[in-house]
Amino acid sequence: MTEGLSQLNEPRALLSNATGSTDCGEDAVLYGDAEKVVIGIVISAITLLTIAGNSLVVISVCTVKKLRQPSNYLVVSLAAADLSVALAVMPFVIITDLVGGKWLFGEVFCNLFIAMDVMCCTASIMTLCVISVDRYLGITRPLTYPVRQDGKLMAKMVFVVWLLSASITLPPLFGWAKNVTVDCVCLISQDVGYTIYSTGVAFYIPTTVMLVMYHRIYQAAKACARKHRFVDFPRPRHRDRISCVDSGVRPPRSVKRSQAAKECAPLSKFLQEDHKNISIFKREQKAARTLGIIVGTFTVCWLPFFLMSTARPFLCGSWCSCIPLWLERTLLWLGYTNSLINPLIYAFFNRDLRTTFWNLLRCNYRNINRRLSAASMHEALKATEKHEG
Q1: Which tens digit of pLDDT belongs to each residue from 258-281?
Q2: Where do the TM regions start and end (predicted)?
Q3: Which of 42, 165, 174, 247 could form a disulfide with 123 if both were Cys (CB 3.0 to 4.6 A apart)?
Q4: Among residues 34, 32, 16, which one has the least CA distance to residue 100?
């Protein structure tokens, strides 16, 4: 029977070598020299920029005291996942793409490569999911949500994210749903059950959670905006008038200033506490808006690839991929581009990160913490003057 199978497979192998196609039916893409140069420059630039951007995030949070907070542990986890994709996955994909889609690194390394690819991409997606839940609790319970101030609890959340991500890579390594590693092909398992499980846990469930969380954040933001929309209190025209209610009635001259100040104290305390709540709300609202853009970008980048991955076993069967190789690689690199975009969005919307990035790029390492503290103090003074005005 073995001889019969080898004789049956020999013509297929000869046909594969003659036509430039694999045993699974994927047509190898034979690029010209000019096309290889252009494609190599583009995908290499994506890889290098991804490494640089996410390295800056990790270095900034680890070295700058102001950024070294439990609430940024998830940001570091996201950057570490994206950085791992750029370092351990993208270089091998670049080589495979430039040689026309043929896997040159053997069966054993193929399994390790797929495991690393799936784990790092899933960790990035799940971290975004946890960040969305964190932001939802932060904006709806700013004074009672303690996890973001507890480094141990936040570290446990990061550990659980990576543990769940690793669990998706284990089935192909232990016998269930083996990866396709024949005839220079390195393809994740096309078993229908495993495909539904892996795409559901890695993408569809986290994406659903993220969309639900940000819909609730949007509703909570509208409710808070209505709650904190105050009517203007009448302002005294002269310095010697003291009025703490909105009646606009000038207190009689016989009333002592101390008595008037005592009567105004409850209102002043209320306004100070509410101003504190508004400041917390605005800070969380800005962070939620930033992560909302990140989630939207993530969906645009990864949704086409996961739709293709889910449909592929039903269209092509369990042991091959009939999707055109150029389309498959284009959607894959669109997903990888999300790892490049994440640090750019953080740098654009986070002033502290943006300042730190700029100083690190200029090799201006000295007194970064002092400059950030001075900038924060300046912003606080401006906000206080605006509030008092």
Answers
A1: 555 555 555 455 445 455 555 555
A2: 37-61, 73-94, 114-133, 153-174, 194-214, 291-311, 331-349
A3: 165
A4: 32
How confident is the model over 155-178, as pLDDT tens digits?
888 999 999 999 888 888 777 778
Beta bridge partners of 21: 27
Q: Sign of dihedral through CA atoms 297, 298, 301, 307?
A: negative
**Residue with tokens 């480094």, as numbered in its chain:** 151
Distance CA 378, CA 386 (A): 12
- Would you state the pLDDT for residue 152? 84
Domain 33-231+283-372 has CATH 1.20.1070.10: yes
In terms of Cα–Cα distance, which of 167, 172, 199, 161 is closest to 80? 161
Is residue 22 helix, strand or coil? coil
Contact yes or no for 202/40 (Cβ under 8 A): no
Spatial contact of 76 and 58, defined as CB atoms under 8 Å apart:
yes
Take residue 207 and report the two structure tokens written for it.
Answer: 């994406």
Beta-carbon contacts of 333 under 8 Å, excluding residues fewer than 6 positions away, are 43, 46, 93
> What DSSP state is assigned to residue 1?
-
Domain ranges in the chain are 33-231+283-372
**Residue 27: strand, helix, or coil:** strand
Cα–Cα distance for residue pair 74/201, rounded to 1 Å: 19
- Cα–Cα distance for residue pair 63/56, rounded to 1 Å: 10
Block residue for tokens 């909302």: 292
- Tell me how long the chain is: 389
pLDDT(197) > 70: yes
Tell me 72's DSSP state. G
> CB of 347 within 8 A of CB of 353?
yes
Backbone angles phi, psi at 27, to 5 degrees: -80, 125
Rounded distance between C-alpha atoms, residue 120 and residue 159, angstroms: 13
Instruction: Considering only the C-alpha atoms of the chain, give the largest distance between any 2 of them, rounded to a whole number of Å.
Output: 114
- Torsion on CA atoms 265, 271, 273, 276, rounded to nearest 10: -140
Mean pLDDT computed over 370-376 = 61
**Residue 173 in contact with residue 194, Cβ under 8 Å?**
no
